[in-house]
What we know:
The protein is 65% helix and 11% strand. It is mostly helical. It has a single domain (2-104), classed as Winged helix-like DNA-binding domain superfamily/Winged helix DNA-binding domain (Arc Repressor Mutant, subunit A, Orthogonal Bundle). The protein has a two-stranded antiparallel sheet with strand order 1-2. α1 (2-13) packs across α5 and α2 (17-28) crosses α4 (44-56). The termini are far apart. The model has no long low-confidence stretch (mean pLDDT 91).
Amino acid sequence: MAYAKAAIEALGALGDPTRRAIFERLAARPSAVGALASGLPVSRPAVSQHLRVLKEAGLVSETPEGTRRIYRLDPRGIAAMRDWLDTHWTVALDAFQDFADEHAEEETPE
């Protein structure tokens, strides 16, 4: 479960509402810090700090483009979260199936 640690860090990074907003904007399109900061109630330096956290969590990558850096979602970080969630989803579905099977015998036909 190497992806578990990455998934936990990624989910933790998304716990902040401003980082979630930045993440959602990057899901729509890659952007520079200035474009991301536009419309957010935080400064450009604050957006840069949030991007650093998202990058360290594996959710964002950056590409230099002239004097700017363009940020985009990193599919590897998203895949780690999805793998982690899929594992738990499978366990939950199996538990539900067991529960349903156990209680199906208790049901009486009308």
